[in-house]
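Summary of Year 1 activities. Much of the first year was spent building the evaluation harness for sequence design. The harness presents a backbone, in tokenized form, and records the residue chosen at every position. We chose the following record to illustrate the format because it has been used consistently in internal testing since the harness was completed.
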């Protein structure tokens, strides 16, 4: 059997919490990897919470983030996230840093969290 464990990096992209406002996830450094996929998990939605998710990219970790062009994101996430669901967003851009953004359009709150899986490492095994 092939060893996937030694060929991927995993990081927290958005700490699991009840979100009542829009929130930017952690800046993920993709240096040393040639692919990235974000996984989003949702829980309960309160008062018709209307939240969406998108990816942003930048050349710097702390500033300059802009929305990733649609042609560089593969996703199964709907326009409005559903309760108790899991989604994935594949990043195909070429910037060093990427982050997930949870955007509130209405309602009260959503329980959500996200991780990123970094693949195709330039050096393996990955610690």
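For this record, the design step produced the sequence shown next.
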């Amino acid at each position: 059997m092939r060893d996937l464990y030694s060929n991927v990096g995993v990081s927290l992209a958005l700490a699991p919490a009840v979100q009542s406002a829009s929130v930017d996830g952690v800046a993920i450094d993709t240096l040393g990897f040639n692919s990235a996929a974000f996984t989003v998990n949702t829980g309960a939605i309160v008062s018709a919470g209307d939240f969406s998710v998108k990816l942003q990219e930048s050349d710097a970790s702390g500033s300059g983030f802009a929305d990733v062009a649609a042609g560089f994101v593969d996703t199964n996430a709907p326009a409005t996230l559903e309760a108790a669901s899991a989604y994935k967003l594949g990043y195909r851009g070429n910037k060093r840093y990427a982050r997930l953004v949870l955007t509130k359009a209405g309602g009260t709150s959503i329980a959500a969290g996200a991780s990123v899986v970094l693949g195709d490492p330039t050096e393996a095994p990955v610690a």
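The mean pLDDT is 96. Quantitative recovery figures across the full test set are reported in Table 2.
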